[in-house]
C-alpha cells in the first residue's frame, strides 16, 4: 500500500505524507456498531492527568470492534473501513445469522471473503482458531492472553507474530518486539498480518496535524527553569541534562528500566532486550 505525498505548497507540506485510502470501500460506519467517545484529555476517573500532552483534537466515534469471534461463526467481509481510533483498518463482516461485527482487517481481506472461527475452521489466512490448531511457523495476529478474554496482543497496523513451537500446554510465540513468550494452547489467534502495513512510514509534517489528533506540545526539560524540571537551570547557552536523564518528577528514564515483570516473567522465554543484543 503506497504512501501519498502532498504537493509542497507550504513549508509544512514539504515532506508531509498521508495514507492511501484506496483500500477503503465505504466512508460511513454502521450506526449500530458505533458509540460516542468522550475526550478525557489524559485524565483518569479522579480528574488527574495521568497521560501528559493530551487534549483537543477532532471528535471521533468509537467503533465497537469484536476481538473474540465466537467459535463456529462464519462471516463474510462486506466492507473495509477506516477507524480513527486505531492504526489498523477494520472490516465490517456479516455472520450466518445476519448479525454485523467489526473485526481487525488483515492484508488478505477483501470484500466477499469468507472467514471462519473455531477449532473446525480451515487453516487459512484471516481464520481464527486456538493456537493448538495453527501450524508451527505461521504468522499470526490478534492473540488472546487468556482464553476467552479476546485478543490483546499484536493488533497494531502492520504487526505480526510467529508461532515458534509447542510444548506441553503452551505455545512459544515470537512477538513483534523480538520477545519470545508462552501462551496457553487454548488461547486463540488469527492467521496473517494486520493490514495498513505502510502506516509507520507516514510523516506528520506539521504541529497542527498533531493537534488535530489530540496531541498537545511537549517542552524539553533543558529549556525549563530549575524549579520546573531536574534538567532545567544553568547560565545561558545550550547545555545537556547535566545528570542522568530524569522525568519531571526525578525518576530515571531514557534507558533505565522501571518496569517490574514478576507476574509474567515465567511466561517470557526470551526478552526483547536479549533479542536486540544478539
Brief digest:
It is built from two helices and 17 strands. The chain is mostly beta strands and 278 residues long.
Count, helices: 2
Number of strands: 17
Please bin the fraction of helical residues.
under 10%
Whole-number mean pLDDT: 92
Low-confidence stretches: none
In whole angstroms, how far apart are the ends?
Answer: 31 Å
Q: How are the SSEs ordered, and which strands pair?
A:
Layout: E1 3-5, E2 17-19, E3 34-36, E4 61-63, E5 74-81, E6 90-95, E7 100-104, E8 114-116, E9 128-130, E10 139-141, E11 143-144, E12 151-153, E13 161-167, E14 170-174, E15 180-184, E16 188-191, H1 207-212, E17 268-270, H2 272-277
Antiparallel strand pairs: 1-2, 3-4, 5-6, 5-8, 6-7, 9-16, 10-13, 10-16, 11-12, 13-14, 14-15, 15-17
Care to describe what's here?
- With 278 residues, the protein is mainly beta.
- It has helices at residues 207-212, 272-277; strands spanning 3-5, 17-19, 34-36, 61-63, 74-81, 90-95, 100-104, 114-116, 128-130, 139-141, 143-144, 151-153, 161-167, 170-174, 180-184, 188-191, 268-270.
- It starts with a strand and ends with a helix.
Amino acid at each position: 500500500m503506497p504512501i501519498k505525498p502532498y504537493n509542497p505548497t507550504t513549508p509544512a507540506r514539504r515532506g508531509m505524507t498521508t495514507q492511501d485510502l484506496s483500500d477503503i470501500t465505504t466512508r460511513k460506519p454502521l450506526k449500530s456498531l458505533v458509540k460516542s467517545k468522550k475526550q478525557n484529555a489524559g485524565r483518569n476517573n479522579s480528574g488527574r492527568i495521568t497521560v501528559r500532552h493530551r487534549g483537543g483534537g477532532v471528535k471521533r466515534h468509537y467503533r465497537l470492534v469484536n476481538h473474540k469471534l465466537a467459535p463456529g461463526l462464519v462471516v463474510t467481509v462486506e466492507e473495509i473501513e477506516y477507524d480513527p481510533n486505531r492504526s489498523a483498518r477494520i472490516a465490517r463482516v456479516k455472520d450466518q445469522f445476519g448479525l454485523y461485527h467489526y473485526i481487525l482487517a488483515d492484508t488478505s481481506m477483501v470484500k466477499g471473503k469468507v472467514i471462519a472461527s473455531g477449532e473446525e475452521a480451515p487453516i487459512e489466512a484471516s481464520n481464527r482458531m486456538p493456537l493448538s490448531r495453527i501450524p508451527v511457523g505461521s504468522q499470526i495476529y490478534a492473540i488472546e492472553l487468556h482464553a476467552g478474554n479476546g485478543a490483546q496482543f499484536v493488533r497494531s497496523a502492520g504487526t505480526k507474530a510467529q508461532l515458534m513451537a509447542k510444548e506441553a500446554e503452551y505455545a512459544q510465540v515470537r512477538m513483534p518486539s523480538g520477545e519470545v513468550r508462552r501462551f496457553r494452547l487454548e488461547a486463540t489467534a488469527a492467521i496473517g498480518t494486520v493490514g495498513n502495513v505502510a502506516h509507520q512510514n507516514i510523516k506528520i509534517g506539521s504541529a497542527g496535524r498533531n493537534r488535530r489528533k489530540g496531541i498537545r506540545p511537549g517542552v524539553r526539560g533543558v529549556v525549563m527553569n530549575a524549579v520546573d524540571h531536574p534538567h532545567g537551570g544553568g547560565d545561558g547557552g545550550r547545555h545537556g541534562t547535566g545528570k542522568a536523564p530524569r522525568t519531571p518528577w526525578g525518576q530515571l528514564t531514557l534507558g533505565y528500566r522501571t518496569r517490574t515483570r514478576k507476574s509474567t516473567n515465567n511466561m517470557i522465554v526470551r526478552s526483547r532486550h536479549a533479542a536486540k543484543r544478539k
